[in-house]
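Researcher: I'd like a structural prediction for the single chain below. Treat it as a standalone chain; there are no partners to consider.
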Amino acid sequence: MDTPQVIAPPCAQPGSPGTQDVTPTSGVIHVNTRHVSGFVIIGNHLAQHHELSLIAIGLAVHIQSLPAGAKVGIKVLTNRFPESEARITAALHELEAEGYLHRSRVRLATGRVVTRTISYNKPGATAPPVTTPQRKPQRPTRPAPEPLPEPTPAPTTAPSPAPELAAPIRVPAPTAPRKQPAPLPQPHAPTAQLTQAAAALLADLRRHAPQLTLTEEDIPTLAPGIAAWLERDVHPDTIRHALTDQLPHPVKHPAKFVRNRITTLLPPPLPGTTDLTPPPRRTPLTIPLQNCDTCDRAFRATHPGHCRDCRSDLRAEPTDLTCGAA
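Model: Treating it as a single chain, here is the predicted structure.
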């Protein structure tokens, strides 16, 4: 009686071979329903991508589920999802790097420039050729031509040679004359010490502004201009600041840029001490006072003598004497 009786077969262990539709003891459980409409097919190469972020994978699934022609700009996606604009931009860059997206700028027939986005459900697929719609010119409707009368046969004569047409002469459009650059300033008394200091200042510019790295051929050409600055008692730090202040980005031609600043920002020479001395003030010319020799009245004159009244009396006295003598 102690021998067990086998009445029913033992239950199959979970995960044993030969069993189907067995619920796993741990992990995810799938409940799949067949879709008839409104679905998109996503490959495991995208859903289980090992290098894309979760935002990039979800954004790729969303873009592939949209109909053709839907807007997928950064502003549209930012308004659609709670993620920030920076995170959505980074996710788009990830998809472009892995080959799931391709964005390009296209100019339409109307002249408007738009961004065209191509979504690939599998990287490496060939995109179909996309043509830009163009406006067809509207042709004016013309009335049907009236039937022409039958021409009468003309007498057969030898055809005359057609005159040769001269090729049209193309006249170029007038252009404004190109403005010549100003000449580089030159020192009045160049010396070897002055030229050496100017060359050293130009070669040292790249320590303060790497954009102004000059070649060995540019430095001897531009050295006379810096020598003209040094000759006018300009400090080297002032010259360096004038050449490196507010540089554009990028500096395409460093030698031309430095030459232009040397020429246009050249300061005038310092004035001398005599130029800074104010001119002496002129005193008004005064005529001294004199005492009349006859009436002792004061009058202004450069030399002593008689006043105006006494001079008139003196002129009349000889006439009176002459009359009295007569």
